[in-house]
Amino acid sequence: MHTSTSAPANRSTVVASDRFRWRVVDIVVAAVLGVAIGLVFWAWNTVGGLWFVAMDGVTPGLGGIAVGIWLIGGVVGGLIIRKPGAALLVELVAAVVSALIGNVWGPLTIVSGLAQGLGAELIFLAFLYLRFTLPVAMLAGVGAGVGAWLNELFVGSSPNIAKTVEFNLIYLGTLVVSGALLAGLVGWFLVRALAATGALSRFAAGRERRRDV
Predict the structure, then answer these.
(1) For 62, which DSSP code?
(2) Predicted TM-score of the model (pTM)
(3) Where are the domains of the chain?
(4) What b/e readout covers 137-154, taking b as 16+ CB neighbours within 10 angstroms?
(5) Are the C-beta atoms of residues 205 and 82 closer than 8 Å to each other?
(6) What are the pLDDT digits (tens) for 10-33?
(7) CA 83 from centre of chain
(8) Which of 23, 66, 124, 156 is the most buried (most CB within 10 A)?
(9) Which parts of 63-185 fold into alpha helices (H)?
């Protein structure tokens, strides 16, 4: 009896271990995604930066509505690779690429990437890396937004903790909305579009898209 009852448990442990083990293709794709999204960040530094300033000019804190695109790396990385650390790694690599190319924030971009990636990562962890639906993607975007908010509360040349409570609440609210829509919703549709091309055939995200079709 002991052998027959323990064998299924052992097989279950092996399956879980295999599911969480990083393959070479996972590492390569994470790096490619990070670089590609880093280039998106670099382009958004101008467009999003102008939008941020314009919205903040209307109401201080409203600029957070433009931040979502800078949060998308963690969402896309988590949805495609589906391994512990994927969301954090892709967002961090993207931030490093953006910083290396050059932007007004310099090395602080990397710190932001770490905070934002961790925020998305914690959402995927909360679902035990088992659910990758649209609501989970949007929650991951929200998590990345909260990570960005906490980081900027204490880090930077002018930490937000020195600003008013009203500003910080408005900024948090806009980051949550922007994270859910520009990172979560857009990221989810982006992954589905990539899967439809067959580029993700070696990933569960690609196989699921083929079944849906």
Answers:
(1) G
(2) 0.89
(3) 2-212
(4) bbbbbbbbbbbbbbbbbe
(5) yes
(6) 554 445 567 889 999 999 999 999
(7) 13
(8) 124
(9) 72-81, 86-101, 108-126, 134-154, 165-178
